[in-house]
Structure formats: C-alpha cells, structure tokens
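User: I'm putting together notes for a lab meeting next week and I want to include a structural view of one of the chains we've been expressing. I don't have a solved structure, so I'd like a prediction I can at least talk through. The sequence is below, exactly as it appears in our construct file.
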Amino acid sequence: MEKTELVFIPSPGLSHLISTVETAKLLLDRDDRHRRLSITVLIMKLPNDTTVASYIEKFSASSSSDNNTTSSLSHLRFIHLPSGEEDQATGGTPSETFRFDLIDRQSTNIREIVSDLVEQPRTSRMGGLVLDMLCTNFTEIADEFGIPAYVFFTSGACGLGLLSHLVSLKLDHGQDLTQYKGSDEEMSVPCFSLPVPAKILPAVMIEGGPVADVFMNYFRRLKDMKGIMVNTFYELESYAVDSLQSDGKSQTPKIYPIGPILNSGAGGGDEKRTKSEEIKKWLDEQPEKSVVFLCFGTMGSFEESQVREIAAALEKSGKRFLWSLRKPGVKGSKIPFPTEYEGFDEVLPEGFLERTEGIGKVTGWAAQVAVLSHPAVGGFVSHCGWNSILESVSFGVPVATFPMYAEQQLNAFQLVKELGMAEEISIDYKIDFKGDSPPEIVGAAEIEAAIRRLMTAEEEGGGGGVRGKVKEMQSKSRAALLEGGSSYKALSLFIEDVIQNAV
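Assistant: Thanks for the context. Below is the predicted structure for the 503-residue chain, given as structure tokens.
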C-alpha cells in the first residue's frame, strides 16, 4: 500500500523532541490498522547537550524490545542533522540569537533530505512537513517543493492565541509592543475570558531587540500553515479553542487539539535509573498524597538566595517534600543548562538536611512523570512549563505556580485565574538568564502559605476547590484520548486531512 510520509522538525532541546516523538507514536498507533503513514523525525542538537542522544538511544532500545509496538514504530525513523563547526565554536560572548541561528543553519541539510524524499521512487506520497513553532521558517522549503506545512504547537491553545494576538497588534495595527514592558495595563486577549496583565506577557515578545524580531518572524508564519496540532485537549481550554476556531478574520488555520501528549518515560542512563529507584523507594515509604514535589524543568535553577527562601518555607510548613534542586549553569554560556551540586550543603541553610531528615528528601535530577504518578505525591511546586501542566493534570496532582521564563507566567495566570486549578506562589516571577538585573526573590512566607494551601486543599464542594477541579480535569483528560473523545477525534481528523492533502 502507498505510504504517506510526514517529516517532523522539532526545535533543538529535549522537551520539544519528546513531545514530537510521542505525537509521532500516537499518529502511527492510531493509523496502525490502515498502515498509511510513515514518519521521519529530523533531530537538531544543542552544543554540549547529551540528553537528546541518550533519549533516542533509550527510546530505540525500548521500542525494539517491545513486540507490541514494533508494527507501528517500524515506520518511525530518526535522522540526526549534522552540527556545523560554527555550532561547536567556543570563546567569546554568544549571540542573543545563537539558538535560532543554529536552527536556520540547518536549512540546506533539511532541503536535501526533503528533496531526496520527494524524488524517491513513487512508493509514497509526501504528507508534508510538521514544524515546531520555532521552526516555521522551513515553510519556505515546503513551498519550494509544493508540499503542505503543518505546525505542532507544543504549548497550549491560550499560548497560541496570545502569540497570534501579539503578532496582529504589531503587524496589523502597528503597535510598538515594548510599551507593555513593565506596564500595569490589562489587555483584552481573544483566547482569554479575563483581562490579561501585561506583566505576564512573554518577555521575548515585548522587550524589543533581535530576539523579539526572530520570534515575531516565527509566529507571523503560523497563519500560513495548513493546520496546527496543539498539545492540549478541548475540555481544558474550550474557551481558547472555540476562539481560535471561530476567528472571523481567518488569522488562524485549522486547529487540532490532540493532547495531552506526555513523556512515556524513555530516556536516561544507568545513573539516572539508579536515582529514580532511590526516589521511588523513598516515596514508597510516605503516606498517600502527603508529599509536595518541587521541580522546575529543563532550565530550572535558582541562585542561593532564592534556594534559602524555598528551604525556609519547606521547613516551616512541616510538610513532607521531595525537592529536585539543580545548580545554575554558567552565566554567559550559549545554553546555561543546570548542573548537579557536589553536595547540597554548599547552597542550603546550615543544618537544613539534618532538621528535615525523615520528612524531606533533596535530590538532583528527578524523573518528573514517575514522581507525579506516585500515589504519595499530593502537590507540585512547578515552573509551569506546558508539559509539566499537562502531566500534573493527567495524574491529578494540583500545582503551586512558580513560573520562570518563556510563556510560563502566562500558563500560571491561566491555571490560577482563568481555570482556578492552581495555588499561586507567583504568576509573574521571572529569571534573568543574562544577569543584567539583580535576581528577583520570592519570600519564604509566600512560598510557605501556598504550600500549606496546596497540601490542605479540599476535594469537597462539587469540585469547587483546586484539588477537586484538578481531579475532575484528570478524568476529562483521559476521556479525551479514548475512542469517541475530543482528542481522539481531532487526531483522526488530522490523519485524514494529511492523507487528503498529500502530494
């Protein structure tokens, strides 16, 4: 049978790659009965990032050993794009647009791969390119070969709607978005039912400069796509999805809410596996829903002053805790990935580990999905990355919001204000990776109060409380993926549209 080939192009970085691979698996599994699809994932790597290679190696090994998935996953392949010498260069201050320059430099390699696929013997048709939201420049390659271009938007529908709105304000209405920097203004945004404070807008969009220009260039292309898959489900963001789909000006293409797409857990070497087993053993010894888990994502780390405030809050709260504590990366490096502390005593208050022994555990890296799925975990202090939000909902664990960068402030606002599904530590805290300003500090009292609210949240009252609303949404998230559910239907519709539009 003739195959339809999709080429996924995620942006560099583990979190975007994981979402992409899980989406590819979902597409192949859904179409397994017909066997019409084959998928190629093109992989870009950031300098000094070993997590991607480890993930792919682990994923491939687990796939080949699982007989139940071999039939569909045999139609999934990976191509590692070469890293040019300029990508590995060291010395000097990295360009603000380094990450995006790295993406753009792959144009020649991607064009050659697409050309080979288009010109191969016609045993397959080209279903199109499926681009990460930071790879929309490659629509030019799709146009060159006359094939469709879709986007896989790894954040939510509210995020998509806000970015589209900001693009429209600048390009259609001529607004200078820097007017919102530091502003107390509240904005009317189509995908939100409540006014949106300017202080939670993504900094990269309103600070001006070359990075803002790059993002504006990426997001202005969204309206030209054949369709956009969004990692959300209708029941979670019904207001935003309805707003996007009813846009009378047709500023947004067809929307497919296909989530929640979660990390299946593949990845990590022996050291991480040992760490995961150690954490599980500790959690097994804790009462159900008694532990608050603190974890802040791929780039999440704090300066010592903020670490000490969090430590004081945990100690005063008296709640059981598991804290994934990472060391800040080197300032001024191209990608300041957090590292591991040699010993936590170098950053924690004196005697903290001894005083909290028995009720708390401090660790470095932690397997977030495995922890959130454990019955001992009853709350999650999170940076509010979109993947983390979906994971918390999927496992019924309520969040206390501690956003740090990107669109996380927007996600925190959505959870706390728009949906009433989270407790607020902060919704506008921001990390300054460039180190241009003194680090912002959230005090121990605020953190402690939010943790107490989080861990004592009631489920009674018809789901009116935070915990009750999260449990209700957990059920809806699972139903969305089942046959007849909203995401099941959206994914099936996407497949049929891809087959119909293939060339």
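A couple of points you could mention at the meeting. Residues 95 and 334 are 8 Å apart (CA to CA). The two ends are 16 Å apart (CA to CA).

User: Perfect, that's what I needed.
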